[in-house]
Amino acid sequence: MSPLDAFGLTLFIILLFLGIFLCIHGLPGLVLIVADVLVYAIITGFEKIGWQALFFMCLIAIAVEIADIFFSLQGSPRFGPTRQSVSLSLGGSFLLALLLTPALLIVGLVGGFYLGGLLGLLYALIHQESKLRPSYRTPIRVLAGRMATLLWKGSVASALVCFTLLLSYD
Q1: Residue 116 in contact with residue 92, Cβ under 8 Å?
Q2: Spatial distance between the Cα atoms of 51 and 62, rounded to a whole number of angstroms
Q3: Taking the CB of the first residue and of the last residue of the chain, which one, N or C, has fewer CB atoms within 10 A?
Q4: Helix, strand, or coil here: 155?
Q5: How far apart are CA 165 and CA 80, in angstroms?
């Protein structure tokens, strides 16, 4: 493998994990994941990732993003990323990925990255809410609803990344 190929593959994998990280914070990370996979498939000539798999991934990403927009229009609040939530979720992502990778390999890496980030975000939100007066706090049912939305959106993103990594490696 040439250094340019290694750099391209590294950038491809970094962008996949960045897509998961964006999904943790409620941003459209699935769009980044699908765009990254599309560029990778075009560069490799659809050898490793076929157009059928890419089409299926696009349909799933569109459906999930539309559902996320629908739920946010129904009143599910969005928690904007703060410096504290980003740093805690990034630390949680790396820590849990590091702990789960030896035992579960690729599933541990992707799942640990996602779940660690989600737990870090949850800790940051709870810490942020604890500083507020009780009358200004977000109700627990609203917080649980938004966490459920982030959980299923991130689970789909993690599944797409696992699927992509398994297809791209020989």
Answers
A1: yes
A2: 16
A3: C
A4: helix
A5: 29
